[in-house]
């Protein structure tokens, strides 16, 4: 009896230790069997090419050829402008240098005319100073004559004699002042005259303030026009260089696309 109980206990323990997954591996007779194959996803064919464009390669090549053609035209146009402006600059270079030299001469003429004007003004001031001194001397002569008459007049009073002397003194003061002014005017006139003598050789016959100014205006206008042409040439050369750079990029792009087409 004891032996039978032990045997039953061993059988129970063996059953309890059986793994659960072993039981799960058994087929379920009631489960439906799927015969449908898994769906396969087919991605659509992409036309994306190098550069990230979704356009067909042939269309990209056509566009690249157009870009290259436009770039070539831009280079030709810029080159033509550079050639034209270079010709103008070369043609006007000699005259430009000549005009600049003439402008220097015109500047000397302006200085000479200015010196002449100052010399003439100083001479006029000198002449007025001479006239003023002459008038003062005439007044002094009259005052002295009046004084002589008063002193010779036995009936003249002391007051009259005093007035006559005051008139002489006043006239003498005017003469002294006029003499000082004339001395300064003569010195200034002499200096200005010498300055003009030093530069009057720069003037040609018929040169006046108006004629020299007109000549200067013409020369400055011609010089500015040439410098403007030079500036345009510089900009045209820069534009040509940029166009050539764009042409290089367009050619490289087209070449890469054609390689992908092969």
From TrEMBL:
Coiled coil spans: 209-260
Keywords attached to this entry: Coiled coil, Signal
Residue ranges with Low complexity bias: 31-50
Signal sequence segment: 1-16
Stated name of the protein: Uncharacterized protein
Keyword Signal annotated: yes
Keyword Cytoplasm: no
Chain positions covered by the region annotation Disordered: 22-174
Organism this protein belongs to: Steinernema hermaphroditum
Biased composition regions of type Basic and acidic residues, renumbered to the chain: 65-79, 90-111, 125-150
């Amino acid at each position: 009896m004891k032996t039978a109980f032990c045997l039953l206990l061993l059988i129970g323990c063996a059953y309890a230790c059986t793994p659960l997954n072993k039981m799960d591996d058994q087929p379920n007779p009631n489960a439906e069997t799927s015969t449908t194959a898994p769906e396969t996803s087919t991605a659509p064919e992409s036309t994306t090419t190098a550069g990230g464009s979704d356009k067909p390669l042939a269309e990209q090549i056509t566009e690249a050829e157009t870009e290259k053609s436009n770039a070539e035209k831009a280079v030709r146009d810029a080159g033509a402008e550079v050639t034209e402006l270079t010709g103008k600059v070369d043609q006007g270079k000699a005259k430009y240098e000549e005009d600049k030299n003439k402008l220097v001469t015109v500047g000397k003429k302006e200085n000479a005319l200015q010196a002449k004007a100052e010399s003439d003004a100083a001479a006029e001031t000198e002449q007025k100073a001479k006239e003023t001194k002459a008038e003062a001397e005439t007044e002094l002569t009259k005052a002295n004559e009046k004084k002589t008459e008063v002193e010779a007049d036995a009936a003249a009073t002391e007051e009259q004699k005093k007035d006559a002397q005051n008139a002489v003194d006043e006239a003498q003061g005017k003469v002294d002042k006029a003499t000082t002014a004339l001395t300064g005017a003569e010195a200034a006139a002499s200096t200005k005259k010498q300055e003009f003598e030093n530069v009057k050789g720069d003037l040609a016959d018929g040169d006046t303030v108006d004629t020299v100014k007109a000549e200067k205006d013409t020369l400055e206008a011609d010089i500015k026009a040439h410098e403007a042409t030079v500036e345009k040439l510089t900009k045209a050369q820069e534009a040509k260089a940029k166009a050539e750079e764009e042409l290089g990029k367009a050619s490289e792009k087209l070449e890469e696309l054609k390689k992908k087409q092969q």
